[in-house]
């Protein structure tokens, strides 16, 4: 065979291999939210508060929402459920600079592909503070939530190298926003 033909065959094989490796959930330009911090406690006095960081850099907060959509066991929510949760939020008037937001958004796909430690029961009746990131599947309008870290009643963490950086960054915004 001529080298020209081998190059064409090689190019076709690589194209087929790459097209077969598409991710089903990715960070998409058409998704609404990227990150979430959520505190939930059902012990004693019920408590449920947190924040979303949306794709425009807005920090949206919630505290004891009347109606809230929690993900199913597979950690997915559809676009309508996410929109209902966003509607239960208030804009904190905090805006994350887009360059900063993009830096941390670039970590989401890697974090979502990484393993998470098994949850460990730590202190009972303290509630759980959780840090999440989201990916989106445009074909089915589904959001996939991935754990970055949980602490409190249950402790676990994502083993990705960037997880600690993302949690630290998210904590900066959580600490300056009053609930």
Order of helices and strands: HEEEEHEHHEEEEH
Distance between the termini: 70 Å
Which spans of ≥5 residues are poorly predicted at pLDDT below 50?
3-22
What fraction, in percent, of the residue positions are helical? 25-40%
User: How many DSSP-defined strands?
Assistant: 9
Quick gist of this model?
With 179 residues, the protein is α+β, with helices and mostly antiparallel strands. It is built from five helices and nine strands; from the N terminus they run αββββαβααββββα.
Structure description:
30% of the residues lie in helices and 33% in strands. The protein has 179 residues and is α+β, with helices and mostly antiparallel strands. The protein has one domain (24-176). Strands 1, 2, 3, 4, 5, 6, 7, 8 and 9 form a nine-stranded antiparallel sheet that branches. The protein is globular, with a radius of gyration of 19 Å. The model is unreliable at 3-22 (pLDDT under 50).
Which descriptors would you attach to this protein?
179 residues, nine-stranded antiparallel beta sheet, 9 strands, 33% strand
